[in-house]
Specification:
The complex is a heterotrimer of chains A (296), B (244) and C (356). With 296 residues, chain A is mainly alpha-helical. Chain A is 74% helix and 2% strand. Chain A has a single domain, classed as ABC transporter involved in vitamin B12 uptake, BtuC (Orthogonal Bundle). Chain A starts with a helix and ends with a helix. Chain B has a six-stranded mixed beta sheet, sandwiched between helices. A four-stranded antiparallel beta sheet of chain B has the order 2-1-4-5, with helices on one face. Chain B contains twelve helices and ten strands. In chain B, a hairpin with a 2-residue loop joins strand 4 and strand 5. With 244 residues, chain B is an alpha/beta fold. Chain C is built from 14 helices and four strands. In chain C, strands 1-2 form a two-stranded antiparallel ribbon. In chain C, a hairpin with a 5-residue loop joins strand 1 and strand 2. In chain C, helix 2 packs parallel to helix 7. The radius of gyration of chain C is 22 Å and the shape is globular. Classes of the chains: A mainly alpha (296), B alpha/beta (244), C mainly alpha (356). Chains in contact: A-B, A-C. Chains A and C meet through helix 4, helix 9 and helix 11 of A and helix 6, helix 11 and helix 13 of C.
Chain lengths: 296, 244, 356
């Protein structure tokens, strides 16, 4: 009995960890090319989930998800082109405030478009009670979907950044923007692209976990903080570490329910964030030297 | 090939270059010498569009480039080897070079890229040996070679070098200057900015002396080498003592 | 020196003029929102000192407002009469720190006196601000923003999750705050004018304090920190201490506003601790012009009044979001810095020429 409960919490932690990890990676992609922390990162997850639910009203599930991801990517690109692209050497404070403003606008837009209701996509396979037995533990198939999609996203991102020309160009832009421009790489387009990619993976994550965690217009801000916590835990700029950090945070949160009321769950992760910021801002895994080598 | 007229550049209210004019002809090696803070790096960053001039004109191959973004200037054939190398530290040598060929790929000259790559490896055999090593792990001299190689991969008609000898051991500096001289012999056009005035003037056809953002002297390299003022100020010779 | 007092006099005159205007036009009910706007302004000018002069962003100031408000609300509503016999409680009751009053249903309850609760709230705020400020202010840029945002979120989720704080409903039936015999901070319409003046008196005093502060040695030190912290450090300015003191002071401003607004409204809810509130404070400081106390004061009075009157309807948060973006994109120095002075100057000059 105890063991079963333990695994249930573990699985729940992994599920939430997936989404934190993806948001964290999204932070890193944009941070690496621009040096900006995009406070609207959580909104991408919300937009993806909400759009998919709406599209699913008249499209089959796979198409609805694809559509939602594309729409969110477009929104991400648009944000960059409208608010970021043409600023000349903006201060960090200015960028923080602008992306916060953007996140508020997206959230309020979602509120007017979709209302306050909580929505969710149907389970991709089976329903809320179906379960797969793995080594004596019952796991919802959606959890496997979430883990699988996260794994594929991470894999594809790795292939993209290391084995395609475009990915290498983005890495060059991240590592040294002036030098990239001197190679003739259109750095501004790379920045737009980083917003598009980051929005896309956020939206995909939003769709995959929607059946389990559900989607509402206001979930973005909380996810942004969690995602940032993960990005910091892993060391800002280091996406592979963010995956590990995402699972750590998800599991910690999940098990915190054992010792504390559920309502304090959010406070836990933020306390971890604050503790990390104060004690080891370079991350759990990296040293400060490596943190400066910005990598995807 | 390159014609700069009455260029004014400022950081905020701090004026750095004043009415600066210079030109580089096809096939020439031109050097700009000057002390630290004279505005040499600012000049090169402005020509490549990393900085915006306040006024003046920059013409490259008879076209105004003063307001173009950096990537367009590079794709027109004007490349810069930036100060301090600035290689992509976390990427292997080969990827660094291929990134330098970005404009060639865009022009659809795939075969040339591979020929250029072999040529660069020919110029700098050490890069061939280190092909799969991360650029950040190279020595300073190797990084400088990589930076030059990366700029050459774009197939530029004008290559500008910003202090290639900075922080390098004398023996390596000699190698680097030999390469620059060879580029000139092969018909390349070079604009070389240096604090190491003697070495620069020895391989250059013409030279400019930059002081506090102004060109104070220009002429054939051998004349500048012989100029007593320059000898005193930049070549570290105590002219009067020698004459005694 | 005289200019400072001219400005304060102008503020006092404006406060009186607004009250007379509402009286003359029969719109005295506006005073309720104007009073609330006054308290929010107190938070915002405190934040303006921190952001504009010390150059430190805080996305958690609603947290300090909530600490003030909730401390006072809890202490003045929790009934201690069951423990009346306990020596500590009876001692407190005798010394006047505890006070008996009738509750909503006519029963007699024993609660902490509002003044004692107020002092408690201030102490807690100072301690929390100190504990948070020491580590947080070592951070810069994104890290500082996220850390303060995190602090705000913790306060919000704790308030929302704790039944003692009324969870999602908040705390209601908070008693009036007696100031002088016959004068109390309360929402009753008989005290409306007096409360309006009290709120804005607090703002005026707050302004006076801040203005004197920024014109003193402290102000110069803060500006040098804002300009270049390392350089300031090299010149012997203890940057960390100045930043911390400023942080605590602005937290105290927020807490004072929280206490009085809670008594004025007769309650407080979790939305006062929300991130959106903190962001709104930052937005107003940004529109007013970072580092312009007077600009911030004016924008705060106007925007808070409009928002509280419901002029922005369901777009309330969106309006503040748009304001934030627009200001940061087009005029990071603030709207009032949009060269109005030179425009006016030019107008006066041409006027004179025309006259001559």
């Amino acid at each position: 009995m105890f063991l079963e409960l333990f695994f249930q919490y573990l699985v729940a932690g992994l599920t939430y960890g997936t989404i934190y990890a993806v948001v964290g990676i999204g932070f890193n992609i944009i941070y690496n090319t621009t040096g900006i922390i995009n406070f609207a990162q959580g909104e991408f997850v919300m937009l993806g989930g909400m759009t998919a639910v709406s599209l699913h009203a008249f499209l089959p599930l796979p198409l609805a998800i694809a559509g939602a991801v594309l729409v969110t990517m477009a929104v991400g690109g648009l944000i960059e082109m409208l608010f970021i692209r043409w600023l000349v050497k903006p201060s960090v404070l200015r960028m923080i405030i602008i992306t916060i403003g953007v996140s508020i606008l997206i959230r309020e837009g979602a509120l007017h478009l979709w209302g306050e209701g909580i929505r969710s996509l149907p389970y991709f396979t089976g329903n809320e009670v179906s379960a797969i037995e793995i080594g004596g533990v019952r796991v919802s198939p959606q959890v496997l979907w979430a883990l699988g999609v996260a794994a594929i996203v991470v894999l594809l991102l790795n292939v993209f950044f290391h084995y395609t020309m475009l990915g290498r160009e983005m890495r060059a832009c991240a590592s040294n923007r002036d030098a990239a421009a001197l190679c003739g790489i259109p750095t501004r387009n790379m920045v737009t692209l980083s917003f598009v990619v980051s929005a896309g993976i956020g939206a995909l994550a939003g769709c995959v976990v929607s059946p389990i965690t559900q989607t509402q217009y206001g979930i973005g801000a909380g996810l942004a903080i969690k995602g940032f916590t993960v990005a910091i835990l892993g060391g800002l700029g280091n996406s592979m570490a963010a995956v590990g950090a995402g699972f750590i945070l998800g599991i910690l949160e999940s098990f915190s329910i054992w010792v504390m009321p559920t309502a304090y769950k959010d406070a836990i992760s933020i306390t971890i964030l604050l503790a990390m910021l104060f004690a080891r801002p370079s991350g759990l895994f990296g040293n400060s030297e490596a943190a400066r080598l910005k990598e995807f | 090939m390159l014609k700069v007229r009455n260029l004014d550049v400022a950081y905020g209210s701090l004026s750095v270059l004043h009415h600066l004019s210079l030109h580089v002809k096809q096939g020439e090696i031109v050097t700009i010498i000057g002390a630290n803070g004279a505005g040499k790096t600012t000049l090169l960053r402005t020509i490549t569009g990393l900085l915006r001039p306040r006024s003046g004109s920059i013409r490259f191959r008879e076209e105004e480039i003063g307001s173009l973004p950096t990537e367009n200037i590079v794709s027109r054939g004007c490349s810069l080897v930036p100060e301090g190398r600035q290689v992509f530290a976390a990427m292997p040598v080969r990827e660094n070079l291929l990134l330098g060929a970005y404009v060639q790929f865009k022009r659809g000259r795939r075969e040339e890229v591979h020929r250029d790559l072999e040529r660069i490896y020919g110029l700098f055999p050490v890069l061939k040996q280190r092909e799969h090593q991360l650029a950040g792990t190279l020595s300073g001299g190797e990084q400088q070679m990589l930076a030059i190689g990366r700029a050459l991969m774009a197939g530029p008609s004008l290559i500008m070098l910003d202090e290639p000898s900075m922080g390098l051991a004398p023996l390596i500096v000699k190698d680097i200057f030999a390469i620059v001289r060879q580029l000139g012999k092969e018909g390349g056009t070079v604009l070389l900015v240096e604090q190491n005035a003697r070495s620069a003037l020895r391989i250059a056809d013409r030279g400019y002396v930059l002081e506090n953002g102004r060109i104070v002297l220009e002429g054939a390299a051998e004349n500048l080498l012989a100029n007593r003022e320059i000898q005193r100020a930049y070549l570290g010779k105590d002219v009067d003592a020698e004459n005694k | 020196m005289f200019q400072r007092f001219r400005h304060i006099t102008a503020l006092a005159a404006a406060i009186a003029a607004v009250q007379l205007l509402t009286a003359a036009t029969g719109k005295e009910f506006f005073l309720t929102q104007l009073t609330m706007a006054g308290y929010y302004t107190l938070v915002i000018i405190g934040l303006c000192l921190l952001m504009g002069y010390a150059g430190q962003i805080s996305l958690g100031h609603a947290g300090f407002f909530a600490i003030g408000g909730y401390t006072s609300a809890v202490l003045t509503t929790v009934d201690l009469s069951a423990w009346k016999a306990a020596p500590a409680i009876s001692l407190l009751a005798k010394s006047g720190i505890l006070t008996g009053r009738a509750d909503l249903y006519g029963g007699q309850i024993l609660t902490v006196h509002p003044w004692a609760a107020f002092l408690c709230a201030l102490c807690i705020t100072i301690v929390v601000a100190f504990l948070i400020g020491v580590p947080v202010l070592k951070l810069k840029g994104h890290y500082l923003a996220m850390a303060t945002l995190g602090f705000g979120t913790i306060i919000y989720s704790v308030v929302l999750a704790t039944s003692r704080f009324g969870a999602a409903d908040g705390i209601s039936s908070v008693p009036a705050f007696p100031l002088l015999p016959g004068l109390a901070v309360t929402g009753g319409s008989s005290q409306r004018v007096a409360n309006y003046y009290f709120a804005w008196l607090l703002v005026t005093v707050g302004m006076l304090l801040l203005i004197n502060l920024i014109h003193s040695r402290v102000g110069r030190a803060l500006r040098s920190i804002h300009g270049a912290e390392d350089a300031a450090g090299a010149m012997g300015v203890d940057a960390a201490r100045y930043k911390l003191n400023t942080f605590i002071l602005s937290a105290v401003y927020a807490a004072v506003a929280g206490v009085f607004l809670t008594h004025y409204n007769g309650g407080i809810g979790p939305s006062e601790a929300s991130i959106m509130k903190s962001v709104r404070y930052v937005a107003i400081v940004a529109v007013g012009g970072m580092g312009s106390l007077w600009g911030t004061l004016i924008m705060s009075a106007v925007l808070n009044f409009l928002s509280l009157r419901g002029y922005f309807g369901t777009f309330d948060d969106a309006v503040f979001g748009s304001i934030l973006i627009a200001v940061m994109l087009f005029s990071p120095e603030g709207v009032l810095k949009l060269d109005i002075r030179s425009l006016v100057g030019r107008w006066i000059r041409t006027d004179r020429k025309a006259g001559a």
